[in-house]
Amino acid sequence: MLKKDLYNMRFAIIFLAMYCIPMQVLFGTVCYLKAFTGIPCPACGLTHATLYLFMGKFKESFLANPTALLWIISIVLFLFDRYIYKIKIKVFPYIFIIVGIITIIRYICYLKILYL
Fold it and tell me: In angstroms, rounded to a whole number, what is the distance separating the alpha carbons of residues 41 and 101?
């Protein structure tokens, strides 16, 4: 099933690579909002936070983006359901929506602190 999913997403993967590589080379970031306005987006810091989590640096992870752990847990549960149990639980869209709302709320609080 993973092979089929990767095949079905091949154009999205190619487009993502075509976007990320030039943005990183030209602007030093893949975040278009930060590159063009200087304002970080709600997802800024998620990659760093995830890497810090995998290295066991929990404080640095939380400082980079506190919602990274929620995203990792949601994605791991989704992948576990899709490729191992194959139960097809229908709550995952709602879980991702809730985590997205938490990310946006955290972002609004961050901007209030940053610009006040």
Answer: 14
pLDDT tens-digit profile of 68-89? 999 999 999 888 888 888 777 7
Q: Tell me if 92 sits within 8 A of 77, measured CB to CB.
A: yes
Give the residue from 39, 46, 48, 37 showing the smallest Cα distance to 108.
Answer: 39
**pTM of whole model > 0.85?**
no
Whether pLDDT at 28 is above 90: no
Cα–Cα distance, 35 to 26 (Å, whole number): 9
Alpha-carbon span 112 to 114, nearest angstrom: 6
CB 48 within 8 A of CB 65: yes
Q: Is 29 left (phi over 0), alpha (psi -120 to 50) or beta?
A: beta
Residue in the block written with tokens 């847990």? 73
